[in-house]
Each structure stands twice: as structure tokens, then as C-alpha cells.
Amino acid sequence: MSANIGNVFRINMDKGDGIKPKPGDVSRNKYFVVLGFDQEGNVYGGVIFNTNINQNLPQDIKDLHMPVDNTKYDFLKHKCFIDCSRLKTASPGKLSAGQYLGNIDETDLSLIIGAVSQSKRETRAHLALFGL
After folding, report:
1. d(CA 102, CA 130)
2. Is residue 1 part of a domain?
3. Within 16-105, where are the H helices?
4. Are 21 and 51 in contact (CB under 8 A)?
5. Which structural domain, as residue segments, surrounds residue 83?
6. How many domains does the chain have?
7. Where are the beta strands (DSSP E) in the chain?
């Protein structure tokens, strides 16, 4: 499985991935944007799409949710928000079991990486692990 920076995959994520499933479920399908990978190729770092911003989050975290219009990307059915507050991780197996959807354009990718790099929830060491 080879994934590139900016690729978007629909993958299954659960609590172990830092995702809170809906009541009665153990996992959720999420859109995952690849932002980097460790040097050994064992894990990809990226961000996820959310339909809405959780209004219970602190304002500084809400501010790190980048709006994305569905008219810009064919794989989106409605306006979404990319959560740039914290990197999520996915194994190559998780990506290959998922569905490749498309790519984020260079302008949006630059904005996403900039926002993640400024997040108070990220450390320089964690960002560096994925080449960010």
C-alpha cells in the first residue's frame, strides 16, 4: 500500500484511534487526509473530516476546524470541517482496507499543515515524526 501526502481515504476508526463512536456503535467511518508518514512506513499521520464542529470544545480547538465546501471536492456530499487540532494515525493496513477517495489540493493542504503545526495539542516531536 502506497499513500501520498494529500490523499484522502475513507477508513474505519474507533476509540483506539481517538474517535468517539456514536451510541451503540464501536467504530465510525471517517475521511482521513494523509499529511505524513514515519520513516519506517509503519504509520501515517493525518487529519479527519467532521460533518459539524462539536460545540462543547474550547474555542481555540473549534478555531482549528477548517471549513471545506463540497463543491470543491467530488467525494464530499456536503460542507465539512477538517479537524486540524491534532494528528490522528493510521496504519498502512487500515488505509489499504479503506477506500481511496481523491486528493486535497496544494492550497488547502498548506493551510491544513499550517493549522496543525500551530495547534497547542501537538508537540514538535510528534509533528517531526511525520515530517511536519
Report:
1. 21
2. no
3. 59-62, 92-97
4. no
5. 7-129
6. 1
7. 7-14, 27-37, 44-50, 65-68, 80-90, 99-103
Length in residues, the chain = 132
Dist CA 132 CA 130 (whole Å): 6
73 belongs to a structural domain: yes
Residue located via cell numbers 467504530: 27
- Considering the entire predicted model, what is its pTM? 0.92
Looking at the chain, list the stretches that DSSP marks H as alpha helix, in order from N- to C-terminal side: 59-62, 92-97, 106-118, 124-129
Measure the CA dihedral 130/46/86/79, to 10°. Answer: 150
| CB contact at 8 A, 98 and 11 | yes
pLDDT tens digits, one per residue of 60-106: 999 999 999 999 999 999 999 999 999 999 999 999 999 999 999 99
Distance, in Å, from the CA atom of 97 to the CA atom of 73, rounded to the nearest integer, reads 22
Residue 56 within any structural domain of the chain: yes
b/e map 54-77, b = 16+ CB within 10 Å: eeeeeeebeebbbebeeeebeebe
- Here the CATH number for the domain that contains residue 44 is 2.30.30.110
